[in-house]
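Fig. S4 source data, part A: sequence.
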Amino acid sequence: MAKYLKISSKDIVMIVLGNLLLAFSVSYFILPYDILTGGIFGVSIALKPLLPHVETTYIAYGLIVSTFLLGAYYLGRGFIAKTLLSSIIYPLFIEMFKYIPYHIETEPILASLYAGLLTGVGVGIVFRSKGSTGGMDVFPLIFKEKFNLAPSTGIMIIDGITVLLGLTTLGTEHVLIGLISVFASSYTVGKIVMLGSDSAKCVYIISSEIDEINTVIHDKLSRGTTLIKTQGGFSHEERDMLMCVLTVEQYPILKSIVETIDNNAFLIVTDSHEVLGEGFSYGHRV
């Protein structure tokens, strides 16, 4: 069991830093301006009108325990250690900031934007350590594990549900301001999670001169290729389709090569947000 509960010192540092940013966002933007964003305290603010006799912090702590148990069930024992750390230090940071009274004077719209950016950075940092902040981000992790849904998309779904709940309890103005935080948080999480990854272009080429194109790619770009047997849906003609993954900087060169060899070639170009393997994630980098 020890190997499941083991976390590295780097993981611990990242989880602590992420929770510190989250607590700062909650203490100086979300709570002072009643921002209806996602996360434990956003949901707690939305539920407060339905539970008028329960303190917001008690609602939040109840949600922390519930989501922790849910994450433990679906994500396993390795998840427990990292989430347990967040579940302890996150409330401690919230309490710590209570003893550092400081009001950041700004417009509610800007406060929502700042809250979303800080929350996104905090959650993204924790996600990079494969952990959880012990809050509503448990659901995006479950979505990723069970449905291979991107964390940023999962966060947007959960935050969107939170905002819709707030529409019935707090009104339209809170919802519109909260949406700014939702989108800012979702966007930032995606950027932080992918930070440092090797992005690239994936190109599919169909051409009558595929052999020559294949040779030039090997010789001039030093990139590997894959030949895929294809059949035309209309003509039923069989031919090879070439697939090649290359850096963004190399793509214009490849495009020029293909146009020079066969101006009638058919190209499909897609963005690859992360590429793992020789020439990208390890070994020789171009």
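Fig. S4 source data, part B ends here. Strands lie at 200-206, 226-231, 238-246, 266-272.
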